[in-house]
Design brief:
The protein has 333 residues and is an alpha+beta fold. It folds into two domains: 4-159, 60s Ribosomal Protein L30, Chain: A, CATH 3.30.1330; 173-328, Alpha-Beta Complex (Phosphoribosyl-aminoimidazole Synthetase, Chain A, domain 2). It is built from eleven helices and twelve strands. The strands form three sheets. The chain has a six-stranded mixed sheet with strand order 8-10-5-11-9-12. A four-stranded mixed sheet has the order 1-4-2-3, covered by helices on one side. The chain is globular and about 75 Å long. The model has no long low-confidence stretch (mean pLDDT 94). It comes from Elizabethkingia argenteiflava. It holds the Pfam family AIRS_C.
């Protein structure tokens, strides 16, 4: 007799996954969440806002996931998935409200799925965000056994008159960098091409451990600045590096002048550049190069910003120009 299980889909494993994550997911819920896991849709009540604007973002983990699957190290991938979504929406000054995940696989293993989702849970807690739902799709024939794909969707909120979109950036503003935790979740097709042995030693531990360092979460840092300072622009440095992401917030007629000699490039990126014989311009056009987030603000607020975030540092300034971004190899004059 044919059954769904005989076709490769085990509903019981799905139920086990829910059992393993249900309590932890519930810990991310705030009073605004009006129902629990299991409904057809998730309810989130918007609180007291004058002119609320919803800000949303969706993303995945890319081929970084392949390293996690090959090493059976799943704890950080959920963090990556959440961070890639949430870090985008906080660029507009938004407070993350809720997150939903999508997990697809060839053969569902409850322990693996739970480990991935629990990473999302921990990331949500760090961002004061509720994980209110998701979908687990077991698709034999589409994915091989042991293969997983992960994506997420985050919604935040901001008052209309407090949206940060780069429109206030002006000539003379200063650009500060918030360090990344590594490659984050971009450029891994090239990384895997160069680093063919992810089990080799790098700085005293297996290389894959460094490569799987989770994407840094910037909610706490950005909102620490926003509480005390007016920010003119914020850019999340993801795929395409500084070259592609900084211009997204620069108004016409202005140019971000960035001094690459001031940037603190992680040793793992220097190793990739050297071993792969990659041109420096290609590195800056593909990876974050140690800069996970860029903040633009008035010169009078720079010292306070650096006091609030000791890990941050100045990397450039805004000047008049039509190129939107120029990377200089010499120090600022």
């Amino acid at each position: 007799m044919n059954t769904y299980k005989s076709a490769g889909v085990d509903k019981e494993e799905g139920y086990k996954t829910v059992d393993k994550i249900k309590k932890a997911v519930g810990e991310t819920h705030v009073p605004n969440v009006l129902n629990n896991l299991g409904s057809f849709g998730a309810f989130y009540e918007i609180g007291a806002y004058k002119k609320p604007v919803l800000v949303s973002g969706t993303d995945g983990v890319g081929t970084k996931l392949k390293i996690a699957l090959d090493t059976k190290q799943y704890k950080t991938i959920g963090i990556d998935c959440f961070a890639m979504c949430a870090n985008d929406i906080i660029c507009h000054g938004a407070q993350p409200l809720f997150f939903l995940d999508y997990l697809a696989c060839g053969k569902l293993e409850a322990d693996v799925a739970a480990e991935i989702v629990l990473g999302m849970v921990n990331a949500c807690k760090d961002n004061q965000c509720a994980l209110i739902g998701g979908e687990t799709a077991e698709m034999p024939g589409m994915y091989k056994q042991g293969d997983y794909d992960v994506a997420g969707f985050c919604v935040g909120i901001v008052e209309k008159d407090q949206i940060i979109d780069g429109s206030k950036i002006k000539n003379g503003d200063i650009i500060i960098a918030l360090p990344s935790s590594g490659f984050h979740s971009n450029g891994f097709s090239l990384i895997r091409k160069i680093f063919t042995d992810i089990h080799e030693d790098f700085e005293g531990k297996p290389l894959y451990e460094t490569l799987l360092t989770p994407t840094k979460l910037y909610y706490q840092s950005i909102h620490t600045l926003m509480r005390d300072l007016p920010l003119h622009g914020i850019a999340h440095i993801t795929g395409g590096g500084l070259y592609e992401n900084v211009p997204r917030i620069i108004p016409q007629g202005l140019c971000a002048n960035i001094h690459t000699s001031t940037i603190k490039i992680p040793s793992i990126m220097q190793e990739l550049e050297s071993r792969g014989h990659i041109e420096r311009e290609e590195m800056f056009g593909t990876f974050n190069m140690g800069v996970g987030m860029v903040v633009v603000l008035d010169p009078s607020h720079v010292q306070k910003a650096l006091e609030l975030l000791p890990e941050a540092y100045v990397i450039g300034e805004i000047k008049e120009g039509n190129e939107k971004i120029i990377l200089h190899s010499s120090e600022a004059s």
